[in-house]
Amino acid sequence: MGLITGILTLPLAPVRGVGWVVDKVRLAAEQELDDPAALQEELASLERARSEGRISEEEFGQREEELLAQLMAGRQ
């Protein structure tokens, strides 16, 4: 980038910075959603909630299916 271009596009620097931050947050969120360890921990937490009676069997079954589907999709 030349000096003139840099000076003329300087007012756009905050917009580019926000775009960069949004991209990094999006990438981190995608990685966390696909992380098998995080999904397994969530499954364990779900099991504890069911055994403690904080959620119903039906709610447990639905959420468990979703988490297992995510886990299988991540492994493929």
UniProtKB/TrEMBL annotation:
Source organism, top-level taxon: Bacteria
UniProt name for this protein: Gas vesicle synthesis protein
